[in-house]
Amino acid sequence: MPPKKPTRRAGKALKSSKTSKSKTSKSKTSKSTTSRRSRPASAARVASPAASSAGVRVASAPTEVLAAGTKAPAFALRSAPDKTVSLSELAGHPVILAFYPADWSPTCGDQLALYNEVLPEFQKFNAALIGISVDGVWCHAAYAKARNFHFPLLADFEPKGEVAKAYGAYAQSAGMSGRALFVLDAKGIIRWSYLSPMGVNPGADGILSALEALSGAAPDSRPAADPAGAGVTRSVASGGRGAERSAQ
Amino acid sequence: MSGLTPPVSARDHAQGPATAPVTLVEYGDYQCPSCGAAHPMVKAVQRHFGQRLRFVFRNFPLTQVHQYAEHAAEAAEATDATGKFWEMHDMLFEHQTALTDHDLARYAKQVGVVPDVIAAALAAGTYQSRVREDFLSGVRSGVNGTPTFFINGKTHRGGYDERDLTAAISDQLSAIS
Q1: Which residues of chain A have a CB within 8 Å of the CB of B155?
Q2: Is A2's CB within 8 Å of B136's CB?
Q3: What DSSP string describes A22-89?
Q4: Cα–Cα separations (whole angstroms), residue A215 to A96, A125, A182, A184, A228
Q5: For the segment B46-93, what is each residue's pLDDT rounded down to a tens digit?
Q6: In terms of C-beta density within 10 A (0-12 exposed, 13-18 middle, 19 or more buried), how is residue A106 classed?
Q7: A181, A193 in Cβ contact below 8 A?
């Protein structure tokens, strides 16, 4: 299932300049979201010049996802036929949202398989990992079982792609979500976002750097998350997945 | 992103001189078919460049999809104490479809390592942390699947067939000289 060839990781940084200055500018974060060629301070929105010059071809693909500093749009989606996961119940600790195009497609498989392996590292930051695609719950269930995933896959199924659209991650022409990553802090504010080209597995290093920047320290030594939301919700992600995490 | 972290050091398994102008690092999984396909390519590239190339292998097992990959990696690590790492490494890639613990013990014996040593190391998880260290260094280095190669610390973007690897290494050699 790994790719026949190592995939290219030349992603675009999609953090707006507006955000860079308004946010408590994490140097690590901005470094990891900025492509090697772009200039950190003046890096304008990727969408404007690129989209207009490339015209129609680009217009239907997501070119700009919600930037750091934005309040993450609320959602409640099914993770199983009889279970719904809402963003609000995940508040109180960091959340990683991984939008991806489709279950079963090879690159997605690699990306999610990688995150599945890295999960213990995410958990050191007390972060919950959530996969989201437009596939339905039964498809997700079969996929998660086949791949031994230990994190929930949410069905952005009806209305189709609604949540992906809210995050600026929907590829209208393809009818799927783009490959977009968001790291949210304990208060549900997006602290890092990244849009990878559709066929490119973005890896996990950007997420880890963002989590590190968020915690302001190495894992396990970070200050306690927002006390307001911490109590009730923590059990949802860690407890729920912990029970499933038997293999490792 | 896309840089090898940490750089190659004495902790790594390396073939070829430390003074070689080019170091090729592979992150691989013994059960991964693509890594199996890359194995003879790497061998060919090593023959081609001789002493000008150092080759390093780091573990990147996707344990949740490849059920034998973790033990295979640990078994290879376990043979290092007796200086048989590379023999075992080759053996594993050449026998990718049979990697049960029993098979691993058999291969160990064939390369001249007491099978019980391997079995004990696997049972005790002696090399788990070492394998995980490799894996996490890969994650930090931007590895997103296997095999992923680095040439003098930079991610190799091309394919892993002999021609692509040779071209990339030649480019690096000419950039240096």
Answers
A1: 6, 9
A2: no
A3: HS---HHHHHHHS-TTS-TTT---SHHHHHHHHTHHHHTS---PPPTTSBPPP-EEEEETTEEEESGG
A4: 14, 7, 15, 11, 17
A5: 999 999 999 999 999 999 999 999 999 999 999 999 999 999 999 999
A6: middle
A7: yes
From the list A108, A186, A204, A237, the catalytic residue is: A108
Contact in structure between A206 and A111 (CB atoms under 8 Å):
no
Residues B36, B38: Cα–Cα separation, whole Å: 5
pTM reported for the whole predicted model: 0.77
The structural architecture, per CATH, of the domain A59-244 is 3-Layer(aba) Sandwich (3.40)
- ipTM of the complex in this document: 0.88
Q: In the structure encoding, which two tokens stand for residue B161, read together?
A: 């067939």
Where are chain A's structural domains? Answer: 59-244
Domain spanning B13-176: CATH 3.40.30.10 = yes
- Ordered by start, the domain boundaries in chain B are 13-176
